[in-house]
Amino acid sequence: MPARPTANQIAFRYRAVDSATGITRDTAKRLAEQLGVDETQAIHRALHELAVKMLPQYEADDGPLTVTQVRQIKKRAPQDGKRSVRSSLFDTATA
Fold first, then answer.
1. Which among 25, 42, 61, 73 is least buried, having the fewest CB atoms inside 10 angstroms?
2. Domain positions in the chain
3. Own/partner long-range contacts of 77-80 (Cβ < 8 Å, ≥24 apart)
């Protein structure tokens, strides 16, 4: 089995008690068992869930559209004359 490079690894230390900033090894084992995975995978899943929740999931754009961009969009949009949107989501008939 080839040795893994250590440059991309970190030391992970469990806490003595569960808190908002860490968990005990016992809790990690229980969580892994509940998920049906090993401890490492449970940690990866928890970090992934936190990353999805906390980090942007797309690249930031360049900000608001310029006047030229708006003009180009309007030029390419269908010009059939109808400008209203009807929705059947709400019953708008009066009783």
1. 61
2. 11-57
3. none
